[in-house]
Structures are given as C-alpha cells and as structure tokens.
Amino acid sequence: MRKLVLLRHGESTWNKENRFTGWTDVPLSPNGVLEARKAGQTLSRAGFTFDVAFSSVLRRAITTLDIVLDEMDLAGISRYQSWRLNERYYGALQGLNKSETAKREGDEQVRAWRRSFLTRPPTIDESDERYPGNDPKYAGLAKNELPHGESLKDTMDRVIPYWESEILPVVRSGKRVVIAGHGSMFRAFIKHIDKLSDAEIEEVDVPYGFPLVYEFDEQMMPIRSYYLGDDREIKEAIELVRRQAEVTR
Q1: CA atoms within 13 A on the CB side of 55
Q2: How far apart are CA 47 and CA 54, in angstroms?
C-alpha cells in the first residue's frame, strides 16, 4: 500500500482578513504557524514519516512545510518546489475581501467564482502589478503559462500534468510523500484522484492545517482517504472555509 499526505498550509495573513489570495505571496499568520506546528505533531504521533516533499513556490506553503518537517525531525529530506502547485490564480479578485465582494456581487456569483469547476474570476490586465508576469519569481515562464485568472479547470490543467510526471512516479515507487499546498489546488487533486464530477467538487472544502491522507493500491488506485486530527475540529475547520464568502458571516 502507498500513502500520500496532502497538507493545506496554515492560516495566512490574508486568510485571516478573509481576502482572495491566489498567487499573492503572503506569510502565515501567528495562528497559521501554530496550525503548521500542530500538523507536524499530529503526523508524528500517527507514526508518519516522509522521504520526499513537494510544495508550491508560495511562502505560506513553504513555511508550513518547513515547520512540519522541523517538528518531525525531517528537515534534511528531498524537497521540490513548483509554480504548477501554486494556488488557483484569482485574477482581479486577488486582495478583495470575500464577504464584501459577496455583498456587492451577490452570494451566487461569488460562490460560482469560488466553487464551480468552469467559472473564471474577472481577469487581470498585464499592466496590473498583480499580474504574475510582473513578478520576478515567474520570469522564466512562457507567456502562455502566465494566467490572467483561473477557473478550477484551468488550475487542474496545470496541476495534474505535474502530478503525473513528477509526483505520481515517486509515490508509485514506494517513497513516502507529503505535498504542502493550497485549497483549490488540492481540490484539483481530489477531483482527479477520486474522479469526482464537476458538481461533486463544488461541495469539497479543504481545511487549513489538517493532513489529508490518501492510501493507494499497487496500481495507484485510491483505497481510502481521511483527515488526521480531532473529528470535531476538522468539521469546524471545513465549515469555516465553506462560510468565508457569506454575506452574513
């Protein structure tokens, strides 16, 4: 049996402020640091260890992974970063408060931007400072690789090839892998691995800081998946993510 752990980063400063974040490179909040530390301790108590770690190039994921591996005394394992594991790019929504945007645009529109598989957010102009082409971090990317605003399908289109070419072979080989990443990026993984419909993925929320374990057979077919941690705390964390864009929040 092969195991894979998906770990959404701890709360960031913009998560705390309830803003659309996307590729904006914000740090963890103090609470996010505690969530990452707790995730590492939870994994250790459950008997997990890792040979290889992957993350996006965004510091909230990188810092979460740093903290987790330090808690597990695994700081020296092989690590790989890729922009293809970045969060969904929210275009012109990045920086906006989710609840305030829902008041202005309506709950259903914001839900479609956040949850639907095909709906793109308002796109961004290349002159905007938020456009990835204006960030030196992405100077090596081709123009057609730089998003102006991504649907979940768009996110999936860049994430899954990396999964299949770089991560899946490592897991298949029997190495123990952890991926530190982001909510919608992991929703793309979950849709692909669990073969969920476009409608089913709309109901999936990934909480901050709780390890999600996938178990696979030798053919890399998923056997089961489950979160590590207290069931009540996990349910509350999932509900918090679900309610972030409610007008009445």
Answers
A1: 20
A2: 20
pLDDT over threshold 50, residue 249:
no
Q: Which of 11, 87, 148, 150 is catalytic?
A: 87
Candidate list 9, 11, 148, 150, residue with the active-site label: 9
Cα–Cα distance list, 205 to 24, 85, 173, 226, 235 (Å)? 20, 17, 29, 13, 10
Q: Is 87 a catalytic residue?
A: yes
90 and 119 Cβ atoms separated by less than 8 Å: no
CATH class of the domain whose range is 2-242: alpha beta
State yes or no: pLDDT of 89 exceeds 80.
yes
Q: Give CA–CA dist 208/126, Å, rounded.
A: 31
Show the DSSP H helices in 196-230 as ranges: 198-201
Cα separation, 158 vs 151, whole angstroms: 11
Please indicate whether residue 100 is annotated as part of the active site. Answer: no
- The CA distance from 34 to 28, in Å, is 10
**DSSP code string of 30-42:** HHHHHHHHHHHHH
Task: Convert the pLDDT of each residue in 44-67 to its tens digit.
Answer: 999 999 999 999 999 999 999 999
